[in-house]
Amino acid sequence: MRDSGQPEQDRILRGMELHSVEEEVDVTPAIMHKVRQIHQKNHRGHSGNRKKALIIAMLTAILILSSISVYASQYLIQIKNKEGEVILSTIKPWKYSESEYNAKRIKETEEELSKRLKPGEQAVYYIKDLHMTPLVKEQPLNYFYMLTKHSNYQELAIEIEEKGAPVLQEPDYVPDGYQFDFGQIQIRNTPVWNTPEYQILLDELKAQAEKSDEEQGLFYKIVPWSEIASTGMEYRKGEYRIRIAAFAREKGSKAGVPTNQAVKIKVKGKEMILSAIPTSPLRSLTWLSDSEEVLYRITDDPKDPLSKDEFAKIAAGLVSE
What we know:
By secondary structure, this protein is of the alpha+beta class. It has 8 helices and 13 strands.
């Protein structure tokens, strides 16, 4: 199932499903094995060097432990609420791949749907194509939502109020040169995969596809939406972009930030996670609202990266007093 017709910050929504970090890493056996190897290697030398070898082995163990502690502090980060419950934490980045052919077909399909749908309409579609990979065949229905792009914050604020979308304030600060480019509201795709409603739609669209003589065809149906997923806006400076998003979430569940390099910072008393993924040049600042019902994220442009202070200054204008 694919979230379609949306900018990059809302594609992150797939990663905003709630996870918990319960994995414990026991590095003791590996360290002790390394110590024994060093000790045995030196033991075969002169007996007068045994003490020196032991000292070297101990120092090596300390260095290994120190490096692991630094790594852990960069990756394993947890933020707790007033009750002491973990509500936001880092998790291992996941791997997701999609064949170039699949991506090409989906892009072509969404370009076609964007010509047929009106702003605010959601379509569920099925692509008939024997060349699509098994990943698509396992979850054959896709979603496309025709977004309404607002060219100024005032228009976005009106839609936020009308639809009850997550509130995203206009920041007090953005770096020099950046201007409001557009804002938009994204829905939550329904019906959800593996539900009776999903299966009914799938059977209907597959039946249409089977009756068609086309080898490569698009079959879709416009369906109503019921829930808002997020509010987003982008600021632009030439080709550079800063993306800000507010994601609706269910209170009481844990939120995960996929990363293996992160630090915790505090802005106006609010704890936040500044994270990065080595395989991606993007960096993000993530935090939860006081109600725990909205997750906020600021993402910089790798070609014009923000400093930690700049991330904090942007966030300060978004945090409620």
